[in-house]
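To make the argument concrete, we let one protein speak, a sequence paired with a row of structure tokens, as a model reads it:
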Amino acid sequence: MRVASTAYMSTWLTNDDLEHDFRALFERSLDSIVLLSREGDVVDLNEAAIKMAGAPREALVGQNFRIFLSSADLERGWSFFRRALEGESVRYDISASAPGGPELMLDVTL
């Protein structure tokens, strides 16, 4: 039995189908997902990220991710972000919190 590869199967989908599938995965994921601009501003986040942050979406969207980092982790977090912008897959642990929210240890993948 021959199984079609993911790349082959994706040719059956239109761009609208792909966008719909991404949106469904994004919204239904149990993992916190935050979409950032190239400048590091929060563009969108899923419900899991909103719950984890303990702050409403309106308070998070538009904020630069650096405001969530402690001063001790600020440069380290920004360094990882720059590496990801250059195309490197980056995974690290860092302490973060939303304004007024609990401090959390995050396992971040960029």
